[in-house]
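Design job #97: recover the sequence.
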């Protein structure tokens, strides 16, 4: 224990004091990784999570190639000598608390609940990095891709995850589906905002489209169309969530047998 504390203190003492702009930033969660990578801040990244380079979980895995990673502990983060640590909603509370007690500058990011929450957070991260022009440019591009879905009846849809989890009316999945021109009925199927649904219930009350991030139900077509959409695009609320909307609309449209660019969007 004493050795560990001594290591922390020594690493902290080696941190630059009052350095500006931020030269070394460390991310503490997969979702925070994505904001840094979306901003192309590789030159300032001193450390990402181990999941940042996993293409199954991160849509920006290719941008993380060759960048340093850490194991999520306060010791490993301090050894990277960060000027700033960015903690997303899924960062280890113990690590964040230890770093704060040691006086390490930390930017806490709230988990975006809607797509509209994401561009301001891009600007927040960019401001902390001293990359205001890049942040504004990216945020403007993301805002330009946001639009209200076309009026009229929309195909019903649900996202089915391993274990029967079906996201409902709360969170980024619902907002992505809405933006893609789909009506998410996950909450109706589970009877609560977010819950689990048995396969039998899906087959008895099928949506027009069942979106899968795994092939478990590929044979159980019933009266619904099936579409595969990788979990990497659903896992975090990040710039990738907005980038994925058009892809989701295209995938849904093809599965539903629609023409053009997929589900109708403005």
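Job complete. Output follows.
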């Amino acid at each position: 224990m004493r050795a560990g504390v001594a290591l922390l203190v020594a690493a902290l003492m080696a941190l630059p004091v009052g350095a500006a702009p931020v030269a070394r930033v460390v991310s503490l969660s997969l979702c925070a990784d994505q904001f840094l990578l979306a901003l192309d801040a590789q030159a300032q990244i001193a450390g990402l999570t181990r999941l940042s380079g996993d293409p199954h979980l991160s849509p920006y895995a290719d941008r993380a190639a060759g960048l340093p990673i850490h194991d999520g502990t306060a010791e490993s983060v301090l050894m990277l000598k960060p000027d700033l640590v960015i903690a997303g909603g899924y960062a280890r509370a113990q690590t964040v608390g230890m770093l704060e007690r040691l006086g390490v500058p930390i930017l806490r990011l709230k988990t975006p609940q809607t797509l509209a929450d994401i561009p301001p957070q891009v600007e927040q991260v960019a401001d902390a990095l001293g990359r205001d022009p890049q942040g504004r440019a990216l945020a403007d591009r993301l805002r330009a891709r946001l639009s209200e879905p076309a009026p009229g009846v929309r195909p019903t849809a649900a996202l089915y995850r391993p274990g029967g989890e079906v996201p409902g009316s709360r969170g980024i999945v619902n907002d992505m589906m809405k933006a893609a021109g789909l009506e998410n009925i996950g909450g109706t199927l589970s009877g609560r905002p977010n819950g689990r649904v048995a396969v039998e219930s899906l087959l008895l009350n099928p949506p027009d489209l069942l979106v899968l991030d795994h092939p478990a139900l590929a044979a159980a077509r019933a009266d619904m169309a099936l579409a595969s959409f990788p979990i990497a695009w659903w896992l975090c609320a990040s710039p990738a969530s907005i980038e994925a909307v058009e892809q989701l609309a295209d995938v849904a449209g093809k599965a539903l047998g629609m023409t053009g660019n997929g589900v109708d969007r403005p």
